[in-house]
Amino acid sequence: MLSDKMQSALNEQIKVEAESSQIYLAMASWAEVKGFEGIATFMFKQSDEERAHMLKLVKYVNQRGGQAAISALEEPKLDYTSFKKLFTQLYKHEVRVSECINDLVDIALSEKDYATHNFLQWYVSEQIEEEATAKVILDKIDLIGDDKGGLYLFDNDMKVFSSTGHNIVQ
Ligand code: OFO
Question: Hey, which family's this protein in (predicted)?
Answer without folding.
Answer: Belongs to the ferritin family. Prokaryotic subfamily.
